[in-house]
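During the second half of the funding period, the structural biology subgroup turned its attention to how the target accommodates small molecules. The most pressing case was iron/sulfur cluster, which had performed well in the primary screen but for which no bound structure existed. We therefore specified the complex as follows and requested a full 3D prediction, including the ligand pose.
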Amino acid sequence: MRELPVTDVQAAVRGLFLQINRRVSPDIEAAMRRALERETSPAARYVLTQLTDNYAAAAETGLPLCQDTGMAVCFLTVGQDVHFTGGSLTQAVEQGVRDAYIEGCFRKSIVSDPLFDRVNTGDNTPAVIHLSLVPGESVRILAMAKGFGSENMSRVFMLPPAAGEEGVLDAVVTAVREAGPNPCPPVIVGVGIGGDFETAPLMAKRATARPIGVHHPDARYAALEEKALERINRSMIGAAGIGGLTTALWVSAEYAPTHIAGMPVAVCICCHASRHAETVL
Ligand code: SF4
């Protein structure tokens, strides 16, 4: 049994959120530069230039990439032979988020009650924490800062099995098309197929963190990703929704076993400021 102080988790979470709010990952930056190179619309070229310049300015100054520094989401994949010491794992994650958002002067975007009070908690907590147990002695932390311009556009479709591949593609394209300019395109689209009403969105959200350019290992799902990307970009919504060749930078799909009577499809839309990173302790 490996002992791991929760203060190590706290420090890792703090570091991840400080990093992702200031820098997009290299794959996203490269994809945006490729989108700029192939774009023919002057207006879309202007937007893409502004966005890529903004990446550079944020990295240089340490200012956040976007004013919406997001809701903090942490996927913790914990080896079952790890014993956390020195306190509560959940509280350590929360403290790591709190430290990062206060130290980075990032916008605090969380309200304690969603319907009536809507009072800001003041430190961007609580975080959304997803925990899964696996064999082993390591702890993998995937941190995401999820802005709600794009989160609000994400959808779940409870399709019948007979909807087939065309039904899935139609759901994905419908979600992106109806979102229009709201999620700050170019977007990254995560698709979760199967599972049930709550696992499909979890798969979809995790899928948005898969590096751009990496397809699903199953060739059928990889082909589905390609088709979805091509159909989304035919919509010509374009950067910032003002028309252009690149509405989405990438589509990543994941699947899970499901019930014989259904085929849940979740579409998680993430803006170009797709802020995520992971570390292993
Ligand atoms: S959708 Fe993304 S880029 Fe747009 S405001 Fe929200 S976090 Fe920022």
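Two results from this model are relevant to the next phase. Residues 149-274 form one domain. The helical segments are 6-20, 26-38, 42-61, 89-103, 148-151, 164-179, 199-207, 219-234.
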